[in-house]
Amino acid sequence: MGVIDVLLEVTCKNVINTILSCIEHATKGTIYRIGSMPNLQAVRIASGVKRSGSDDIEWGLPTVSDYNYPGKSWMQYRDRPGHVLEAMGWCVEKQKSWTADNPFEDLRSVGKQLRGEIEDSYHMEPVLVRKQDLYGNCAAVLEYPLDWRGEQVWQDSEYVVAAVIKIHFQRDALRRGDRSTKIIKELSRSLGTELLTLHLRENLLRAQREFAQQRLQSCKILAHELRNTLIKFGFVMSAVNAEIGILREEWEIQLRKALPGLEWKGPILDRLNSLVRKRLPLLDGEDAESVQLCNALIAEQQELKCLPLLPVQAEQWVKNRIKPKWLAVQARSGVWDGDREEITGLLDRLNTALRAGANKDLAARVSHLPRDLCEQWSSIAYTAFSAENVSFLGEILQFLDRPDLPVPHKHQIKKLLRSLKVLVEVVPEIEERANSIIYSLKNGGVPEADMVDGCSCEISPLLFGPS
């Protein structure tokens, strides 16, 4: 049971207690909630019986009733031919009270009609609430309940029935239109006001919950979209590293020019591929998987030859993508048994060749370029750019300004890196601002937007329970 349900029950009990205290001959009080149109589900909310000889009230719903939860719908208790007449149907449809001051002649005594039992004297009073107060400008589009003739009820009334009060009396202690019925009518108006207050309070709480849910959902959507956007900005780092790869490739060209006897990855990988191709025809008749594995090995080695990777990246490529395939092809067929020693030696030499460009001692032996240029070029070419060393991009741009740098299209590289530098510098700012907005939105710190006029025709289940 929610907070509003508890308050509703407490409010109904207070009204019953007041009525039974004010009216000496009243013995029992019950309040029924009337649900939303057009279903008008009538549900017993609170019931209290005055103990004999005292003003104490025993609360609860001890007796069996068709109006206990989930109650009865309008189609079940409305007036219709061939069906028992209920005082509830009269009060709801006519928005008028019903007084059974003579139970023997009560036309709407359900017990008398069904079981022949004479009920207590009782008075039932509808609790009316103005449509305008509940629905505002949406009252014009309400769906009204229909009577048995198919005609709309309440359409021409200013009010809707939010609840019904039923008070039982001692025999012969009730008269139609007497002081007791007037007290009940007055208190029904008070109850209507309190129910309207609870209705508005529940609407406010519901709106707050919905707003909180929408705000949280908006945070999730915004965070997801921004995360995707920032991930896409990751291409900036890749683009910068691709340009550094060009500088690395050009540096290795200069190093090979200065040291023609130095072993490089290209010839080693070409020899490894030639060993695969040489023995590949011998696999005719072998399983297709071996042939497929050989072709994949050739492709991996050729791709490594063409990529200007950092030494660590290249070594990982050899470790994870080339060596395992060599081991696999050798395990599947014996055609490479005579080449095992050469293959092992080539793979070992390949790792040494992959690190040659970053060797400072070798860089010092480049004599056809200025010494400081070689040192700076060697350092830049083998540094990975990331968000942690953004300032490194400025160093690269200064290096590209050197007139003695023999790199083709260096001006185009510099122009591209300058454009990427703008993005690199703005991404952290975007991320910081996005995180700040998400945090503020999640915790309710975003300034409220201008209110937009509108109305909602959904009615709170407090007064007009689920139909």
Shape: elongated
The structural domain count equals 2
Mean pLDDT: 85
Main sheet properties: 6 strands, antiparallel
Q: Spans with pLDDT under 50 lasting ≥5 residues?
A: 446-467
The proportion of strand residues reads 5-15%
Number of strands: 6
Q: Which structural category fits the helices and strands?
A: alpha+beta
3D structure, described in words:
By secondary structure, this protein is α+β, with helices and mostly antiparallel strands. It has two domains: 3-207, Beta-Lactamase; 235-442, no CATH class. The chain is 53% helix and 10% strand. It contains 15 helices and six strands. It has helices at 3-22, 74-77, 87-94, 110-115, 131-135, 179-232, 235-258, 265-279, 288-306, 311-332, 340-354, 360-363, 371-381, 392-400, 410-442; strands at 26-34, 42-50, 57-59, 98-100, 121-130, 159-169. A six-stranded antiparallel beta sheet has the order 3-2-1-6-5-4, with helices on both faces. A hairpin with a 7-residue loop joins strand 1 (26-34) and strand 2. The two termini are 18 Å apart. Residues 446-467 have low confidence and may be disordered.
